[in-house]
Write a structure and sequence with these properties.
483 residues, alpha/beta, Rossmann fold, pyruvate-formate lyase- activating enzyme, 2 domains, 6-stranded parallel sheet, 17 helices, 15 strands
């Protein structure tokens, strides 16, 4: 069978946390590893033909990407779905149905994990895949081709010929990640993807684990955690270097340093093979040690992104972070001493911040912490988190507001995208802008950033980021609601 896998556009994506001005192609465009892993699995484990379609690097809208896939006349179309981009997903599916009435449409991704009962009800959808998809999609395609054994494919919900819904057993987390083939980097234009602040023009993303074992109450990453071996990770890095000329890797794991020993093992594996490559990762301060930083630096690590979130012990406790401000300060000091670039991820408008004065504590804390870069977001109550439940109980929004959107997704649907218990969105956005001004418009930080630039690619990406900051400053009034 011929299979088309689609990464849809996010033109009508629901605003959440990071304003669109910092969340678009001017800043970064990651390869869609989800459908790339599915593609490589299909090619490796089956004889089915697979084609990939990513709307985002080509600025395609929902109709255009659906038409591109339909032109190949596939037997099956798979679409990755996030709850926040349901408007575009519905358009893609409707267009596919108009063009190919008999095509089998299966969807997967975060939306199907969180809202499976609603996902299977999307008009035009034949099946959904819930959970890790590589083996499931292969088993499902074989069942479709043979028209037998559909009920045995774990992780699938599907409609039969009469339209009745069947829910197969849950698929357990993929524990043997090393057995999966590397993502399909041949079927999409590598030159169109890029990552923020990287020095080289030849970069890519790589993922070494799935899930996160921590339980921060604002996060919807599922807690089923599994990891790849150091050997498998470095094998893929070498593959990227040798086949595609990749010079720099950005690890996009939700949590790369589950333990400091894991990072040390990966770094030692790189050095044992004399692998010369820049790399960076997202980390928790909880598992960061001087030895980890030293060995990572020796192995080529140039940047670490830390989830800090807020600048007070009260705020950290309210988010269930199990950290203290002093511990965070210590880690950033160690990172600076190791000569590794540090990035702090921060949030504005956390429930414990009752007024402007409280938010200013976090802004002052960042200036004291002195990271090389800071990524601010406005706290957004995601629908499948403990924080969302708390907000609903406080009456900040209707408990079923996301359910109503999912049942009838429309552009500009009014959803809770910030925490308005103490301050309204307008005020939070003004403080969000001030936080950026205080950090990035500081002359000493501008000079420090410019001095560290060593490649044209790095300059180009930093310039793009700077232009986004300037654009944000020019936005005011009603336009702030669309930030």
């Amino acid at each position: 069978m011929k299979v088309a896998l689609i990464n849809p556009p996010k033109i009508h994506q629901v605003w959440a946390g990071v304003p669109d001005i910092f969340n678009g192609k001017d800043i970064y465009l990651f390869p869609p590893l989800g459908i790339m892993y599915l593609s490589s699995a299909i090619k490796h484990f089956t004889k089915h033909q697979v084609l990939l379609f990513d709307a985002q690097p080509f600025d395609m809208d929902a109709v255009q990407v659906a038409d591109a896939a339909a032109a190949e006349n596939p037997d099956v179309v798979g679409i990755t779905v996030q709850t926040h981009n349901l408007v575009d997903v519905h358009t893609v599916i409707k267009r596919l149905r108009d063009k190919l009435p008999k095509v089998h449409i299966i969807i997967g991704g975060p939306h199907c994990w969180t809202f499976p009962e609603k996902a299977i009800l999307i008009p035009g959808v034949d099946a959904i895949l819930r959970g890790d998809g590589e083996r499931a999609i292969c088993e499902w395609l074989d069942a479709l081709e043979s028209n037998s054994g559909k009920e045995k494919v774990a992780g699938i919900y599907y409609k039969d010929e009469k339209g009745e819904i069947h829910q197969n057993e849950i698929r357990h987390v993929e524990k043997h990640l090393d057995e999966l083939p590397f993502p399909d980097r041949d079927s999409l234009p590598r030159e169109r993807y890029y990552t923020p602040g990287m020095k080289s023009s030849k970069t890519t993303t790589l993922i070494t684990s799935r899930g996160c074992p921590y339980q921060c109450n604002f996060c919807n990453t599922y807690q089923r955690y599994s990891v790849r071996s150091a050997k498998s990770i470095v094998d893929e890095m070498e593959h990227c270097r040798d086949k595609y000329g990749i010079e720099e890797i950005h690890f996009i794991d939700d949590l790369f340093n589950r333990t400091s020993e894991r990072v040390i093992e990966i770094a030692n594996e790189m050095m044992s093979r004399n692998l010369k490559m820049r790399w960076g990762f997202k980390a928790t301060c909880r598992q960061t040690t001087p030895e980890m930083l030293k060995i990572a630096k020796e192995a080529g690590c140039t940047k670490i992104h830390y989830g800090v979130e807020t600048g007070t012990d009260e705020g950290l406790k309210s988010l269930n972070k199990s950290l203290t401000v002093e511990e965070i300060k210590k880690v950033f000091k160690m990172t600076k001493e190791a000569d590794i670039t540090s990035v702090a991820y921060m949030m504005i408008g956390i429930p414990h911040e009752k007024n402007r004065r409280d938010i200013m504590k976090t802004i002052r804390f960042i200036n004291e912490l002195d990271p090389d870069y800071v990524v601010y977001a406005l706290l957004s109550p995601y629908p499948d988190t403990p924080l969302f439940q708390t907000g609903a109980e406080l009456g900040l929004y209707e408990k079923d507001c996301w359910d109503k959107f999912i049942d009838n997704p429309e552009a500009n649907y009014n959803l809770p995208t910030v925490w308005e218990e103490h301050m309204k969105k307008d005020e939070l956005i003004k403080l969000f802008k001030k936080a950026h001004r205080d950090f990035y418009f500081n002359p000493s930080k501008v000079i420090r950033t410019l001095v560290k630039i060593s490649t044209p690619s790095e300059f180009k990406r930093i310039f793009r980021g700077g232009m986004s900051l300037l654009k944000m400053e020019l936005i005011n009034g009603r336009a702030e609601h669309r930030l």
